[in-house]
## 1
Amino acid sequence: MTRHVYRFGGGQADGHADLRDLLGGKGANLAEMNGLGLPVPPGFTITTAVCSHCQAHDGSYPEGLEKEVEQALEAVEAMTETEFGDPVRPLLVSVRSGAAASMPGMLDTVLNLGLNDATREGLAASSGDARFAADSHRRFIQMYGNVVLGVSHRMFEDVLDEVKFAKGAELDTDLSAGDWLAVIERYRALVLDETGEPFPEDPRAQLWGAVGAVFGSWSNARAVTYRELHGLDHAGGTAVNVQAMVFGNMGEDSCTGVAFTRDPSTGEPSYYGEFLPNAQGEDVVAGIRTPRPLTAGAVVDAEAPPMEVAMPAVYAELTAAFTRLETHYRDMQDIEFTVQKGKLWILQTRNGKRSTKAALRIAVDLANQGVISRAEAIRRIEPERLDQLLHPTLDPAAHTRVIVRGLPASPGAASGIAVFSADEAERRGSAGEDVVLVRSETSPEDIHGMHAARGILTNRGGQTSHAAVVARGMGRPCVVGAGELVINHDTRSAKALSSSFAEGDLITIDGSTGAVMLGKVPTISPELPDAFHELMGWADSIRTLRIRANAETPVDAETARRFGAEGIGLCRTEHMFFDGERILAMRQMIMAENAEERRAALARIAPMQRQDFVELFRIMAGWPVTIRLLDPPLHEFLPANLDELGEVAARAGLDAEALRRRATELAEANPMLGHRGARLGISYPEIYDMQVQAIFEALHETADAPVELEIMLPLVFSRTEVNVLRSRIAHVAEAVTAATGWTPSYTVGTMIELPRAALAAGSIAESAEFFSFGTNDLTQTTFGISRDDAGRFLAGYLDAGVFAVDPFVSLDAEGVGELIQIAAARGRAARPDLKLGICGEHGGDPASVAHCHAWGLDYVSCSPYRVPIARLAAARAAVESRDGTPDSAD
Amino acid sequence: MTRHVYRFGGGQADGHADLRDLLGGKGANLAEMNGLGLPVPPGFTITTAVCSHCQAHDGSYPEGLEKEVEQALEAVEAMTETEFGDPVRPLLVSVRSGAAASMPGMLDTVLNLGLNDATREGLAASSGDARFAADSHRRFIQMYGNVVLGVSHRMFEDVLDEVKFAKGAELDTDLSAGDWLAVIERYRALVLDETGEPFPEDPRAQLWGAVGAVFGSWSNARAVTYRELHGLDHAGGTAVNVQAMVFGNMGEDSCTGVAFTRDPSTGEPSYYGEFLPNAQGEDVVAGIRTPRPLTAGAVVDAEAPPMEVAMPAVYAELTAAFTRLETHYRDMQDIEFTVQKGKLWILQTRNGKRSTKAALRIAVDLANQGVISRAEAIRRIEPERLDQLLHPTLDPAAHTRVIVRGLPASPGAASGIAVFSADEAERRGSAGEDVVLVRSETSPEDIHGMHAARGILTNRGGQTSHAAVVARGMGRPCVVGAGELVINHDTRSAKALSSSFAEGDLITIDGSTGAVMLGKVPTISPELPDAFHELMGWADSIRTLRIRANAETPVDAETARRFGAEGIGLCRTEHMFFDGERILAMRQMIMAENAEERRAALARIAPMQRQDFVELFRIMAGWPVTIRLLDPPLHEFLPANLDELGEVAARAGLDAEALRRRATELAEANPMLGHRGARLGISYPEIYDMQVQAIFEALHETADAPVELEIMLPLVFSRTEVNVLRSRIAHVAEAVTAATGWTPSYTVGTMIELPRAALAAGSIAESAEFFSFGTNDLTQTTFGISRDDAGRFLAGYLDAGVFAVDPFVSLDAEGVGELIQIAAARGRAARPDLKLGICGEHGGDPASVAHCHAWGLDYVSCSPYRVPIARLAAARAAVESRDGTPDSAD
């Protein structure tokens, strides 16, 4: 005979986790917890097969079901020493649906089933709380009346409001036991009115009514639609779970509580939780009584002793359950429990939510205990979560008043005096002041000010605007697009809706939330816990992808090394041309009439550029350093605003009119696709000559502990460009050797950032020793989307489902990814030892890092502050490509 | 025994064309002409094997060579009835090098070898011209002295200058026979001085000296370098050709002349040429005597009868040779001949240069005569050459004064009064005046003025600037980038270096040469010869690629049909939004605050747009018409110059400040990669809704003779975009059906103009019924080059060999082409009947058309004026893919 009812309770169960199809998810889980020997309130599951039978037979049950239910009920009665319908020791049950796949739309839960006037008295007596019993009763009628009998919830609420109004009561808690009894009477009248039938008083009638309603709900419109949308089988059916109610308010030997098996904010392996004696869960929620701790801390409050002291036996049983649960689920658990008359019942357990710090500690501890593998520990931490450990955060205890909100563009909090120009930022910053740079938007000529500032605030642009990208690269907190802030650069002040500030005023920004505050809000410095270092060590030993950083300043390079970068994957030399003297020389170079004049202007920059490289090389001694030759179009070095030209011209000793003419001449319709990168190198060979010479001279100066030098050509699309430029590099190298007698060791490679370059990778690789995929530009050209202009339609494209995710944030595997794979395959076919990496924003995105691992790249390079994230992401990718994706992460 | 010497002459030859490796190119060709029975001056070839032997044996000749040469010389003497070294009837010869592959750097030619004091007298006697004989002698010494004996050419010239100075002579022709004899003496003294040896007087010594010099020149530095650069074999060696000299100045039964076997300017099948009795070739060049015609025209000048009359027997022999040559070479020949004492000698024959008109006529005639196949006739015409037939040209007889030159940007000549604004062009144009629009540069808002003008002139931009591209599309003559022209739009005048003109002055431009002239220069209207139509008919029957046109105006559509376009492949609807009223409504639409206001503004454009389509559909009845929905970013519809905003605002009834704000808001960093195409359609669905409705209504109105409607979505990169937009199109179609009871028949397809679209073509094709490759944008995104900005480095890239040809002119087969092939393959795999075409500038480029044929596309679409070129190019591609590429085209 087919079994229709599976019992569980007393640490045993008829079913087990694998019977999910038959018992539904909830039923299988209850069986599993019982199988662990945990004290779960007993009950039984009516199988999904019964549901299918009902569907097929006009709602009639299979033969023998009633008897099986009756026997299962008896077993529950025996285990709980109660009886269904008994007025003294009444058994109350919950009835819940539960299909194999979770599904909204079906009948959810009926609690306290079994209550009627008689059993309510029993509940009142055993709990010593008539009001509680009456409230439970009226709740049951309301819930049952609604979900089983179909009476509108609103109608019950109206009745309740009327009674409260009549009593002059504001809150439910203002009503007495007697009041609730009156509500019960009126509820019953309502049900009779609405359904034409009296509310069922017989517990068995209540039970079968609820069971029928659960099965019926399988076919209601919402559930059917849901299954259709999600391609689920209509034949599957739902199971019905019937489980004994337990109560923590049955006297001083009863209680209710919640517990974490470890500290969810620190991850320390100490029980963490609280309980309320002689109380129901609602009492905890209501906050009327103060819960007590589970364990004895340094001091024990004698008036309100911890559970460890107050109920030592039950406490021992509870902590034994903790261990069993952690061992079984191999993770920190968040547990709800109730003690009814000295008997412990575990109501629910699940993996507990935790802070990042705790997540690290727990994963590392579990691995060290041998509960999980190191690989599993790595898999437990979402790399993105590390970000919050790496930046200062606002002190949560501090009082804050947010005057305006923008977009969170670069995480961390920063306070400082507001300044409205990059020059002022640099002036005050180098004088030792903490400044926050406030600009409408930023451009490359603001870089020195951004470096000098603690944080950056703009009222324009999105999360991929210049300010955002550069700030993330520098690890500076940044808020962008605070549109309600009106910035006046003339008066050097800014106005929000209800507040304003001027240059010199202290402000605070939170780049993790986008909040802008007046004054200095205390912040907490990031402190990397031991578990972080331990886990990152494991990650490093497991990953195969190397992680480098994008850096050009000594500060960034040092940050990168501190965070574990294995060299520099992208040193953007143009960032070295904006500071002080250099921008003047750069502008003279741009204004030069011929190569001779250009060379003269460049000669003034050369020693500074060489010194930059010397510093960088010292920090990165022994590691690879990829230096990209000048990339941006020349007009980026002229003031963006033509109005500023006069001032600039005066400072640079140039003719304003000539400068204006040159600026107009250099202006481009689409600078992204303009005269930049290798195109500059071919048009003005003297620029790259100067850079390459400075690089070689710096390498010579640091020859005692040299870096592994890689010279990178930007924006090429053909082998010929590489040939032309690398022969000039060789020429400079020969000249340096001739002058010094020392021969530089270096390789030459290219950015692959144009579709044409990816397609021509086979021939390019014949002349290039490495490729670095410039995924920012490659994404721009592959999609034909300018990152600077995408803001206007990106949101719409995400809404319309054209993008699942912003392709500038996470690599487009289908399109851009195919080009990367084509280039990698063709490049390696031509040159088997070709080194492959990516640089750009995607290098710090965990999903993109996983792709790079899968595509067989050698390294990714990202902002210094993203290095730990990339290291962990690379390790996860290695684990997952080895072990497969886990069923459930974290 | 190996033969070292191959003889030819008297209509016979030892060798033939296939012995190229042994006889060299020149020797093999001489053998071939003899093989045809043509009267070629006799001679012999010393093989390349002899050269190799010399190389290997320190310059010594193989055994028996001298004897073979002696015998060959005797044969020549016999045929020419002369004798080498004979003072009465001296044999003179030329000596030339000739390797298998032509190669600069080797000894070229020694003429009149065999002359000395004795033989010179014989020459003087037989020619009756002592001065000629002496001049020939001194030329021989000079040539031999230089190339064989290594005396500097300069030194001989110095001697000549001294003699001329002493005689007070200015020109060589001022010198008498006696003077030349003096020069000869001084030349001999010079050679003795310089070489230490007297100049060789013995003809045999001269001959062996020359032969040795030819073989030696195989190893000179220039020839060696050339072979290394071109990967030629150093072992190959050169042959030496020794050929009898013949003279046309040996009396009245002698002459010299040139002839074309057909008329090289019209292609008519009548002999065309001239001759000079008793003269050498130099006399023709010197222009002292007037040559006479070969054939008798309407009138015969009795004083100077044509050759047909003067020398009927030789004339008959000559014309017989014409026929033999044309039959053999299967093409019109350009022939040099000499008659020496009544004996005809053919000196040279080659395929004759001809005008395009003649080329067509000749190819068609030859095919109709069965000399060549129709396929070969097609192969004979470079499609690009047709361009000059399709546009008006300046009357060559007219007097012109060019005041400034720009770049030729769109072919044809045009005269009209200069106007300096698009509005003025439209006003005067619609009043019936011919105008030439003069602007610094043009932008989309000038389109109506460009339409109204006969020609366009700018002083900025290159051949792919807006003005150039649009003018070519419209078939308007256009000169761009006339940088020396200073245009003042305020005073409405322009100033060149030495002239100026103002609004209302007549000017003429020649878009084929870039010339700008004052006044009205007479032009000749294009007249398509019958042969053009006949050849195009053959082309149409042979080609498999369909040819459509890019057109949006009725004028363009009619031009396209007249030139044989098989439908419209690209109707750019944005061009319809710039005229008069529409731009105002468009600007109101752009200023609208919400969809409602946008719809109201669009409703004003709708009836005009519908009418546009009605006209287009009537012209194209029965043909496919691809309509591209709005593509450019909205800011293109606002004035490019912010200064003009006030005026524009006033005219449109808009608030100037609001308009300025909106313009700033819409401004883009990289408009090419901005908010345009499908992105606009998704952001502002009401724009496409209006367009689609107008299209369907127009289709309804022309339902009696409908076009094959194809609606095209621009700038997509994913199937989702297509799905979103095509469901809206379906929605509009349903609404039209609901309103009219008529159901539109249409297909929906996409531009493939982004690398991402090409890669995602498989999934896009599931939702698109056709692809049109937008090769302009695809080239921009694949290379990462903005066409508008490329001018600054394009020339440098062509110089450096990065580009073999501008990729915006001719498709980049390697990169862009691979993307096209990927998209075609994936698209057809997903949808086997997917229609594939290209639109854009490349559609009219013959090389690109050939690629499209090879890649299996269904059609190309190009400017109306390029349609014949594309038809012919498609036919050539079909022929060549069938028959292979010919050895020599045209």
## 2
Amino acid sequence: MSDTQPVSRAESPERAALYGRLDKADSAPLWAVMSQLVTPEPRPRCVPHKWNYAAMRKLLLEAGDLITAKEAERRVLVLENPGIRGISQITQSLYAGLQLILPGEIAPSHRHAASALRLIIEGHGGYTAVSGERIPMAPGDFILTPSWTFHDHGNLGDDPVVWLDGLDVPIVNLFDASFAEAYPSGETQRVERIPGEALARYGTNMLPIEYVPEGASSPVFHYPYSRVKEALGQIENAGSPDECHGYKLQYVNPATGGYPMPTMGAFVQQMPSGFNGRPYRSTDSTVYCVREGQGVSSINGELIEWGAGDVFVTPSWCVTSHKASEHAVLFSFSDRPAQKALGLWREQRIND
Amino acid sequence: MSDTQPVSRAESPERAALYGRLDKADSAPLWAVMSQLVTPEPRPRCVPHKWNYAAMRKLLLEAGDLITAKEAERRVLVLENPGIRGISQITQSLYAGLQLILPGEIAPSHRHAASALRLIIEGHGGYTAVSGERIPMAPGDFILTPSWTFHDHGNLGDDPVVWLDGLDVPIVNLFDASFAEAYPSGETQRVERIPGEALARYGTNMLPIEYVPEGASSPVFHYPYSRVKEALGQIENAGSPDECHGYKLQYVNPATGGYPMPTMGAFVQQMPSGFNGRPYRSTDSTVYCVREGQGVSSINGELIEWGAGDVFVTPSWCVTSHKASEHAVLFSFSDRPAQKALGLWREQRIND
Amino acid sequence: MSDTQPVSRAESPERAALYGRLDKADSAPLWAVMSQLVTPEPRPRCVPHKWNYAAMRKLLLEAGDLITAKEAERRVLVLENPGIRGISQITQSLYAGLQLILPGEIAPSHRHAASALRLIIEGHGGYTAVSGERIPMAPGDFILTPSWTFHDHGNLGDDPVVWLDGLDVPIVNLFDASFAEAYPSGETQRVERIPGEALARYGTNMLPIEYVPEGASSPVFHYPYSRVKEALGQIENAGSPDECHGYKLQYVNPATGGYPMPTMGAFVQQMPSGFNGRPYRSTDSTVYCVREGQGVSSINGELIEWGAGDVFVTPSWCVTSHKASEHAVLFSFSDRPAQKALGLWREQRIND
Amino acid sequence: MSDTQPVSRAESPERAALYGRLDKADSAPLWAVMSQLVTPEPRPRCVPHKWNYAAMRKLLLEAGDLITAKEAERRVLVLENPGIRGISQITQSLYAGLQLILPGEIAPSHRHAASALRLIIEGHGGYTAVSGERIPMAPGDFILTPSWTFHDHGNLGDDPVVWLDGLDVPIVNLFDASFAEAYPSGETQRVERIPGEALARYGTNMLPIEYVPEGASSPVFHYPYSRVKEALGQIENAGSPDECHGYKLQYVNPATGGYPMPTMGAFVQQMPSGFNGRPYRSTDSTVYCVREGQGVSSINGELIEWGAGDVFVTPSWCVTSHKASEHAVLFSFSDRPAQKALGLWREQRIND
């Protein structure tokens, strides 16, 4: 199929009659719809957009007054892309939300086929428990809850804790492969490991002897920002930045060298003050969360100014470039691993 | 997120006001929609359904009188699942259609990011040209056109040729990764290889020395039914059938041992006369095309009688069992490779 | 370490005294031996050599008069490379031998960690039983007995059957990883599968549904020459030969696309009459067995004339070119899979 | 082939005559040698042995007085297994040596097909330069020089620096695949990266975006002991030790999750004071270097007492158990990756 002109819309009466019979037979003429089905280039319905952190934070705290984390199971504001409102999606394939947990609150344990990632935006004393280990949350930390692993959250500190959630729910639902269940005993899972245990076992360029990965997801659930910062600093000292991306790394599953989860990849990039990136595009619509600094990004010519905590999105195949007015760090995630696994991913540096 | 009860719908005025502010901020309260987003089990909107071949063939021939293959670019009747009419899909993730090409007709060359597979239902003298090789079509043959390979069709014989098309268009579009183009020179691609060349090079348990696969799709585009039949016959002689599936094989990419294409898998199963299969379900909604024989399948209790040429579909996680009233061969395809690559696929034998 | 000059042999008395103390301490001075240990290029001790089939066949038949297959367990003449006599090797890493089995004879079942391959040279009615399936031997057939699979041989025909054995025994022994045992019941293993079953299940570009390979070796044990010939014929019709190799294919494991066994690869090449190949070398010393035709090969300048049934060897990194005075087919095998798995393999086309 | 009795040695005159003719034809009767070639279990010629560090250190310093590092290119005492003296091997497949570099010395750059690993035993101020990066050596650090990477060593400190070298030279030579060359300009390679750069880029559970590994060896050349100690401490706090191994980890290539190099694996194990390990054996002969503590190991019943710096070896398939009389850390390396890649590796826990 392709993007050639469909058959003239001035259909004859005979054809109209045939189309009626086709309709009754649960079928349809391809030639009337082909150009809509198979386009010459991506035509995303989702649009470039930014959610201002200060404004969203205010709404989150209001929600905190009106509804408990337990009542809601999760107190999350879904970020809905303006181009596709009403379906709880930030891109055509991903869900994102801002989650708030107040001091003393806990959110009950559950698990689901959908994979989740978190970027901690503010607050200390929060934790996510995954597979029996309580992972302490610090701002900038990247945390996983892989498919079908029990997880719960809590806040043992004195301040509100806020993070960005990313989930592959739309992908799971495209394939009609959703499963979910609450933790048997009800409340929260038992703590069976010490903090940092998974990182020590799997995240220090060593693995348990004769270790065999159980699945495609990373056995390391916690990527502390302190280590990321240190590495980015050394790399910036070592050489010059990529023209498009600055100093950009991808989080990996140390047991395979692949992505942390099969459906979502996560990235972090550091841009020196004054960095003026060259335009680039790829087919994986990408969700950015500003970790540090400020700047402006051009997405298909639309300018989006951003600062710490802001979330913005660049849709598939939109030409994107980043400028940093001060030293900046951007976290981002997308469905790149899924697109690559399915042979669909493309990227392009403009004016190559 | 999980399937627990959402917050009481009796929302307070304060909450209603908050929801209004959230809506203005391109956001929404997760707790109000969570149970719809993340279900405890798959809840496919597509339904079990059969398309009777005799009836569809009649409509195809009518279409043959009213519209040329060239005018339509492809003369195809899209099979639309009754549960999700109007979006050109047979399952939540796949497209299927019946294509007719009349003696002397040709369909022009094009290529697209979407992968396609064909099962030839009737007629001799047809061919599909892929990557410069004309593949002769015989009833029962399984033929690939992998992502981004130029392909065209023609009919050099005296009879109508009809086949079942399967494409991953909904998957490509979920990821907003559609690309397509017509063959530069216009009409049809040049023939640069002899018939059977790819099968000789890659399909005889040998490969060219130091061969390195270029992509994930099979370098063999043609799986002749004559070989399949012979193999199924030997296997049936060799041992007893699987309780659920009879004698069932999957087509493979001989350069990797994996699926022929990264998004779609294809299968063939032979059931002796009187076979009464045990119930089974999996998360990959499956499209069946009856190659030989007749029987009846039970899909979540709904009985579907089938005979040669009929196409029927079993949605995700629906309990399915097959009975063969005479020696039968079923061809089928699904999105299983995609679900496995993304860590989503599950199967279950009932009463295990 | 490297190939630089070792320290002057005019060692001082002090050094001589130190060397004595080192010797007592089960140690040695590296600087005195380094240039022998680590050479700038391969320095194979094995040499180019040919075994004339007529001559070897005569000796085999004499052995047939003097010793029964059962008495010998295997009636095999080991081909010993003249450069490394006395250690039962044809190259630095491989064993090869010519095996004879006379009408009515059987050789008992056993298994070992060493992997074996066979090329049938002459005779009909022979078989190798592997994993419960009796594989009929025809001239030119390539047959595997993977590591630790029970196997036995027999001759149900009226003529002597002769084949070339290739084993990785020197590799297994380098790693001190040899295991072996006779078939429990004594004589020969039970026949549990029908002839051709494995080829039907695994060798027709299909695999049993949800098949998971048990090991790295091919589930197909039999590569009939009839199919190989047909494929080579089509490929020769389809295009021009490789300058060095003619029309050359490698046997593959259809469940992985990799080599049939992890330690040994096997190859077949067809050269049209008058083919005059360009010089080539690689680090995998290679054993050739002439299937059809005749010609001459130049190995580091040494000319080796060959005809049907002859076996010849080209050592590591020796510049080799083949001329075919009549249409010829060469079978060959080497340790290439092992060298590639260990990151050691190199090849070079001369005058590139 | 197998371990059954060879043919009676009381050979007839006819057979003796045949054997003579076979010998002239560069061949030999398999039945006379089969039981030596293919053994029922490994029969390693190398033996259990320990090299006392104090004694070897004394010899190393004597060598330091008598020969310069540059004169020797490398000042190394080869550890020769008493069972196979004279061939510069510590096991049937590996080379090991103790290398000394004195303050102010440098060893020139070279590269070779052989892969090397180092364990630093004593001294500060030493470095190994690999691929343009100078890696500072600290006691306990594990350092790689993968196949065909230029490397040199130097000592910028005030004390002698000593480390254990492990190389796969016997494997490379088995396959006749040795290549080596000195650094073009002569002396030492240019320094092009900052210290710690490779570790920052590849060793922090992140990789450069769209990174594709160039080979099978780790892009991380340095595994600092400080990190290893910290991880071992956390793991010991987290749970109980393995019955055979204590708390044992394997060093990995973070870009693949596999072994650091394709031919050699390296391991570190911590045993609490009083640990009394259960017997175990595997086919990979293993070289141990005691990092901390003391204890005794039983190898096929032979007791070997060890302390810090000592090197000892356990041959293939020898039943081995470790006792720690004080809190101990053992570093070890073997050819396990090669054996696994070739399908040869086996292990056994005794009294399982």
